[in-house]
UniProtKB/TrEMBL annotation:
The lineage of its organism: unclassified sequences, metagenomes, ecological metagenomes. InterPro entries: DNA_helicase_Holl-junc_RuvA_I (IPR013849), NA-bd_OB-fold (IPR012340). It comes from marine sediment metagenome. This is DNA helicase Holliday junction RuvA type domain-containing protein. Gene3D superfamilies: Nucleic acid-binding proteins. Residues 1-61 form the DNA helicase Holliday junction RuvA type domain.
Length: 124
């Protein structure tokens, strides 16, 4: 629904950023790995993933489209996959962007082509 969000960075920590867009403050959850890239910025652009559930609406933000696309891909995963770090694909549907940021994204992305390639995902 939302491709990106661009605005003035009001506040940031290792889990979220508050971005002012024309007087409206948006809380955007971020991977801890991008915190250092944002801390000294005034204006930022984040590629977003918007999650709507029964009891919540959550906006996730990423520095690159690749990070966002891998997150989108993994949150749709129907198979139960346990990564060597203990990260489970089922849990990603809820909230584990910080753990996702620790994965080598290109390797995960290319391992996802077919179900037979899940072994590569496990080792990512």
């Amino acid at each position: 629904m939302y491709e990106y969000i661009k605005g003035k960075l009001i506040e940031v920590d290792t889990q979220r950023a508050i971005i002012d867009v024309n007087g409206v403050g948006y809380k955007v959850f971020i991977p801890a790995s991008i915190y250092q890239d944002l801390i000294d910025k005034d204006q930022i652009t984040l590629h977003t993933s918007y999650i709507v559930k029964e009891d919540s609406q959550t906006l996730f933000g990423f520095l690159t489209k690749l990070q966002r696309n891998v997150f989108e891909m993994l949150k749709k995963q129907n198979h139960f996959i346990t990564f060597t770090s203990g990260l489970e694909a089922k849990i990603l549907k809820d909230w584990h962007v910080n753990l996702l940021s620790q994965l080598r994204l290109k390797r995960v992305f290319f391992a996802y082509d077919t179900p037979d390639d899940f072994e590569y995902l496990i080792n990512a």
